[in-house]
């Protein structure tokens, strides 16, 4: 996957939280291609699609202070795939035994 230097948000070393999320999904946190994929900027449309939600549902989550982390630049909203995955992962429920 070629990198676009304008929107390449891949860190040199992912945080421990990001590493944990990647490892939970069976992804190698030291692989450059995995990091490029994980830190890809997603539009609200794509982020909603990956979570099986609507764009309006994401907008409501943002408005209410819930949902995945996002980047707001002016009126443009962008999500990182890793944050979308981390939020989805954090919503898991462990049933009582």
What is the secondary structure topology, with strand pairs?
Elements lengths: L15 H9 L7 H7 L2 E2 L1 H7 L4 H10 L6 E3 L2 E5 H10 L7
Antiparallel strand pairs: 1-3, 2-3
Q: Can you put this structure into words, describing what you see?
A:
The protein is mainly alpha-helical and 97 residues long. It has five helices and three strands; from the N terminus they run H-H-E-H-H-E-E-H. The protein has helices at 16-24, 32-38, 44-50, 55-64, 81-90, and strands spanning 41-42, 71-73, 76-80. The chain has a three-stranded antiparallel β-sheet with strand order 1-3-2. Helix 1 packs across helix 5 (81-90) and helix 3 packs across helix 4 (55-64). The chain is globular. Mean pLDDT is 85; it is low at 1-6.
Task: Provide the descriptors you would attach to this structure in a database record.
mainly alpha; 5 helices; disordered N terminus; 10% strand; 97 residues; globular; 3-stranded antiparallel β-sheet
Shape category:
globular
Main β-sheet description: 3 strands, antiparallel
Name the beta content range.
5-15%
State the share of residues found in helices, binned by percent: 40-55%
What is the count of DSSP helices, taking H or I runs of 4+ residues?
Answer: 5
- Give, in order, the helices and strands: HHEHHEEH
Radius of gyration, whole Å? 14 Å
Quantity of strands, as a count: 3
Mean pLDDT: 85
**Uncertain regions: pLDDT < 50 for 5+ in a row?**
1-6
Task: Kindly report the oligomeric state of this protein.
Answer: single chain
Distance linking N and C termini: 44 Å
Structural class: mainly alpha
- As laid out across the biggest beta sheet, the strand order is 1-3-2
